Amino acid sequence: MNDSAEHPQIGLLDVPQTVIDEAGIPLGRLAAEFGATVDERGIEGIPADGWRVLQRWETGAAVIGAPVDAAGRSWRIAQLGDGRPGAPSRSARVQSETMPLRPSRAERSRGLEMRWPEATGTSIDEALDGVGFSVDIVNTGESMWRPDGDPFHVVGVIVPAEQKDVGFGWMSGGGNNRAVPLAPGEYARLPVNVGDGQWRDLEPGSYGLRAFLPGLAVPSPPPLPLELTAEAIERHRPIARGRSTPAEEKEQIEAQIVQSRALVAARHRFSEVADAVMSAATREAARDEVQRILGCDPMAANTVVHTRLVDVTDEAIAQTHGLITYLEGRLADL
């Protein structure tokens, strides 16, 4: 478990207790330290004081926040920048909804344990034939476990048998696997989601399947041993479309970064973007107007126009910032 899992959360942001305990400063003063202006349009109940930096990204973007009640149970947050280092125009856009102060992921996970079901261990061939893998989330505690807005979404990662460290990227997509209360001894059996792309570069041999529960800090069970044959790997590989060259992969990542930044920028100017889309007579006209507002390319504007409303919530935009950082790291490694 990493150190951040022990920090309380404001929404989905891990925030050290020392930051939460700070007195904070006036919003305008903090924004000025970033060379930013404050956008308060249409937002009521903005705290005048108590603002501090909650999270900062290498891109230069940051999330700042201040409590709105004396107990500090509810917070107003604002985002600075759109993820572009040295962006010429920076605005502290105060979010319309408050965010709850939540216990740490470690505290919310207390009593939970992940276990491979006996059926999974004895029916690996069936799982590889298309049934899929599953894992149990067990309440080993002595009291009822209740979720706090957390999903039960398990990510599976296939690694060489001797590999210990595992890294993976993940973005929350909503709530198809919303967590459920568990009494002591009860469990929830969940599918393990192994992305198709993981099979692309595998060769026959010995592997281990690791299971992770993003959003909570439940320890992963020991790797599930897998002996992968060429036939099993081929069944799971996505339809071949030709291997991307390094230049093509770089171009694809750069395009995804541009589109993600456009989505963040659209959140900062949501009213303008929404008005433009609602007043447009056609999809093409909506795209062109969004392109003009955001100063982005047509593909990025098209992404914004077709984005679901749930993907511009505070929670989703915080995850998009994380995706941008992840993609920039991949780009640097090419």
- Please compute the radius of gyration using only Cα atoms: 22 Å
Second-tier CATH architecture of the largest domain: Sandwich
What is the count of structural domains?
A: 3
What's the shape?
Answer: globular
Please write the string of helix (H) and strand (E) elements.
Answer: EEHHEEEEEEHEHHEEEEEHHHHHH
Mean pLDDT: 81
- Write the CATH fold name of the largest domain: Immunoglobulin-like
Number of strands: 14
Q: Give the count of helical stretches.
A: 11
User: Strand-residue fraction?
Assistant: 15-25%
Based on secondary structure, the structural category is alpha+beta
Q: What's the main sheet like?
A: 8 strands, mixed
What does this structure look like?
By secondary structure, the chain is of the alpha+beta class. The chain has 3 domains: 101 residues, no CATH class; 128 residues, Immunoglobulin-like; 88 residues, Topoisomerase, domain 3. It has 11 helices and 14 strands. Strands 1, 2, 3, 4, 5, 6, 7 and 8 form an 8-stranded mixed sheet that branches. Strands 9-10-12-11-13-14 form a 6-stranded mixed sheet. β5 and β6 form a beta hairpin. α7 packs across α10, α7 packs antiparallel against α11 and α9 crosses α10. It is globular. About 4% of the residues have low confidence.
Features:
single chain; alpha+beta; Immunoglobulin-like; Topoisomerase, domain 3; eight-stranded mixed beta sheet; six-stranded mixed beta sheet; 11 helices; 32% helix
Topology of helices and strands:
Blueprint: E1 9-10, E2 13-14, H1 17-20, H2 27-33, E3 37-39, E4 52-56, E5 62-67, E6 74-80, E7 91-94, E8 99-102, H3 105-108, E9 112-115, H4 118-122, H5 124-131, E10 134-139, E11 154-160, E12 187-194, E13 205-212, E14 224-228, H6 230-236, H7 246-268, H8 270-279, H9 283-294, H10 298-305, H11 314-333
Parallel strand pairs: 3-7, 11-12
Antiparallel strand pairs: 1-2, 1-8, 4-5, 5-6, 6-7, 6-8, 9-10, 10-12, 11-13, 13-14
